[in-house]
Predict the 3D structure of the following.
Amino acid sequence: MFAKLAAIILALGILGCTLLAMRQQRLQAAHELAEAQLRIRKSDEHLWLLRTQIARRLNPESIRGMATGAGPLRPIASPAPMIVPEIMGPPAPPKRADGGERRGPGGGIPGERLAHEPEGVEPGGR
């Protein structure tokens, strides 16, 4: 009887110590989270101060002066060629694996396969 009582007291003591340790870890994590949030807020305030300083120093006239002082400006990349759809014509219909053309929406012929479709895949059944 004494051994059972000692085991229960020992188990409850271990359980209490474990609970206290977990509680301490939770408090430590909350403290670290609060410190991180304070550091983020301080960094944000510093960032906003820098942004306001930049905004005070920059105005359209000073930007124009910097641009003219840099010399003649030219684009970094050449413009993309313009493709006119009327010149290209309508898109060609998809080809079948045997070289023929599909008929109507969905292919028209059961079991036909486009050249780019893998074998074993039903047309339109993706």
Q: What stands out?
A: The two ends are 72 Å apart (CA to CA). The chain has a mean pLDDT of 80.
